[in-house]
Specification:
There is one protein chain. This protein is of the alpha+beta class and 281 residues long. Helix content is 35%, strand content 23%. The termini are far apart.
Amino acid sequence: MTHAPSNENGMTLTARQLDTYLARIGIDRPVALDLHSLSRLHRAHLMTFTWEALDAFMGWPSSIAPASAFVKMVEGRRGGWCYEMNGLFGAALDALGFRVTRLCGGVDREKLGDIAIGNHLTLRVDLDRPYLAEVGVADAIIEPVPLAVGPISQRGFDFSIMPTEDGWLRFNNHAHGIAHSFDFRADHSDEPAMAATYAWLTRDPGSPFTNALAVLRHTADGYVALQNDRLRTVTPNSVSEHRITSAAHLADTFETVFDLDIPRPGHVWDKIEAIGRDKAA
């Protein structure tokens, strides 16, 4: 398999930036580049940063480059979606000395076909064997897993990696997962495809991310997910749902539930209400 460094998208973390990142996620610099260290970093990243696609939803400026994710997520108090979450994590791992490959994937390729290729960035980390490091789906695995076909169980949630008929691998999310699956190949890196799909997802009126708000964050025993005005709390054994009822309620949810500093939360609420009116019409 060909190794493509995680910083090929234009970012190499300096020693100071790496220290800032590690301080942000509350982890000391690892003494060994092993699975234990990778797992600690993986879990800490997910417990620190919220998955969110607010830039696409609101039409705010954004970038696929890890440098932008560093400013937004590490220096600011924002989250990111797969390109940013896995992009930043991959850049940090690369700076630490891990062998990281950025893989081009496709969420819901089983339904959408090859047009989905490029709508997801995931990571391969080579240690004693290849591992899948995945912090960009948000409601999926919390620690890396061997990049191998078979069932996966973490914290009471069941996942799997299975082969597809055309030679790809399919990561299947747990039963309550928002993204049901994504396809990838262990050696498939395609930065132009991801850049092109990223542009469509952030700008096109037909993009699911410009038409619906999605915010997710891991908790001690599961995760919490906001989809427009529906706030779901999910554990392996339960799913509960509440409604966001006002702009003030939304602003408080961003702050206290998701630990996000969101500019103009009232404008976000206005768009959520407009979507509700359009669906009702």
